[in-house]
Design goal:
This protein is an all-alpha fold. The chain has 24 helices and no strands. The relative contact order is 0.13. Keywords: Membrane, Transmembrane, Transmembrane helix.
Length: 479
């Protein structure tokens, strides 16, 4: 967590930096430790319940999760049969990543910004709740943002340090492979490798290739599959949307999908179930639930190939209004946290349905669990303000705009990566889950430094821009 170039600082300054990082780490450890003690072993949710149940049955691939997350779960919960063994290392990683960024900001003498990010981002009840749960979204989102932060620092100095190499190696697998949309992080990693000199470039390549090969090999050996991906759920969910019965029964709306699409879909779900089981906010009713009535899991490769072809050649274009409305609805329902939520005390009842060595509240704390529930519920009632990802989204747009105006390639790559992530979430989400947008709640940790804390900058020459606009006074900083 500490800068790599501490030896080059004066003695008093070195002590100041050490104190800042230690204090930040201790505050975060205290906050996360108290929270986890009150929710031990952590909220399960439907995904956590499925993960534990399938690992217990030696069938983790049927969770539909990505191989990297399943490998981690097998190496922790699978070997110990304890949920806390899975959660605690992730909590420590989150504390370390947050202390790294917030401490860096404080060292640059922005105490108000650092304190605001500590209180309004790092230690908010919903972040603590997701961070201690069996969902990979919190650690994935934070790792994604923290890895972009490290890339930004390295690009500012055009060199790798021991600390930066360690951070890249630690954060990369979670940021890239814990969820399918993490693959986007390969773009800034590739850009970083190109911008660095030969030796450093090969270090980046080695980190990417070694982790990628290890996860691919582990997933193959453990027969973990490839998850359900993003395209299949989208096509099935939206095709069901397009096939909803229209009460007006207008002539113009009688052929909203191809005859072949109707034939394929009706092999696996009846029209009555298409009308009754479709939920505009969730695809769970078509996949995870009602498997006696919806047999999409049994769909043959040939049928899905034909369905995919019809979707992109006719069905999508015939239903642009319905598709756009569906995308906007799910995105806004997610951003406003109007979907399902897992409370802090979820494990109280969730553990009863699975076989595990973990127990709820093993410390027999009497008031802390109830207090945390009350804090969480109060925060939830103000979620439209306190949980809003729109601050991060606005900052992404501001940084992207400035990068275009100043033709600053480094910032353009960083902000474009987040915009691609946002576009992917908008286009491919099939459930109104707030956790999908957690990366943009974390985004101010990265974007406030980029937007407001000057870093060594080397903008591309722009003949149309005044020199004073594209050149800034550098501030000495260490990665």
């Amino acid at each position: 967590m500490m800068p790599s170039s501490l030896p080059r600082q004066g003695g008093a300054e070195r002590l100041r930096i050490i104190r800042i990082y230690l204090c930040t780490t201790l505050i975060l450890l205290l906050a996360y430790g108290i929270w986890y003690a009150g929710v031990w072993p952590g909220p399960l949710g439907q995904d956590g319940y499925s993960l534990i149940a399938n690992i217990n049955q030696s069938a983790p691939r049927y969770t539909g999760k990505d191989p990297a997350w399943l490998l981690y779960a097998l190496a922790t919960y699978g070997l110990s049969q304890r949920v806390e063994v899975l959660v605690l290392p992730l909590l420590l990683l989150q504390v370390a990543a947050l202390a790294r960024i917030i401490g860096w900001i404080y060292v640059r003498r922005y105490p108000i910004t650092a304190t605001a990010l500590l209180l309004l981002v790092a230690c908010t009840p919903h972040v603590l709740n997701y961070g201690s749960s069996l969902y990979p979204d919190a650690v994935f989102s934070l790792a994604f943002v923290a890895l972009l932060f490290e890339i930004w620092l390295i690009l500012g100095h055009r060199r790798l340090s021991t600390w930066s190499i360690a951070w890249l190696a630690i954060l990369f697998p979670a940021a890239c492979y814990f969820k399918a949309n993490g693959i986007i992080i390969l773009l800034p990693m590739l850009y970083l490798a190109i911008r660095l000199k030969t030796t450093s470039r090969w270090v980046i390549v080695a980190i990417v290739l070694s982790w990628s090969a290890a996860i691919q090999w582990g997933g193959t050996v453990a027969n973990l599959g490839h998850g359900h991906g993003a395209l299949r759920p989208l096509i099935l969910f939206e095709t069901t949307n397009f096939m909803q019965t229209r009460p007006m029964n207008l002539w113009e709306t009688r052929h909203m999908v191809t005859d072949r699409t109707k034939e394929i879909m009706h092999r696996y779900i009846s029209q009555e179930d298409i009308d009754s089981l479709y939920d505009r906010d969730y695809w769970d009713t078509l996949w995870h639930l009602n498997q006696d009535r919806v047999r999409f899991r049994e769909m043959s490769r040939i049928d899905f190939r034909h369905l995919r072809s019809d979707f992109f050649t006719y069905n999508l274009w015939r239903n642009i209004p319905a598709f756009t409305a569906s995308r906007i609805n799910i995105f806004l329902a997610s951003a406003l946290a109007q979907g399902g939520m897992v409370g802090p005390d979820n494990a109280r009842h969730g553990l009863a349905g699975v076989t595990t060595l973990s127990t709820y509240n093993p410390f027999n704390l009497s008031s802390l669990p109830n207090t945390l529930n009350e804090i969480y519920e109060t925060s939830y009632n103000w979620r439209f303000v306190l949980w809003s990802p729109f601050v991060g989204i606005i900052l992404v747009l501001l940084v992207f705009k400035r990068a275009l105006q100043e033709r600053h390639l480094d910032e353009l790559v960083i902000s474009s990566t987040l915009l691609l992530q946002l576009g992917g979430i908008f286009l491919f989400s099939i459930a109104a889950e707030y956790r999908y947008l957690l990366a943009f709640f974390y985004a101010p940790l990265l974007l406030f430094p980029i937007r407001f804390i000057q870093q060594n900058r080397d903008p591309l020459p722009c003949q149309k821009c005044p020199r004073s606009r594209s050149t800034r006074q550098p501030v000495t900083s260490t990665p």
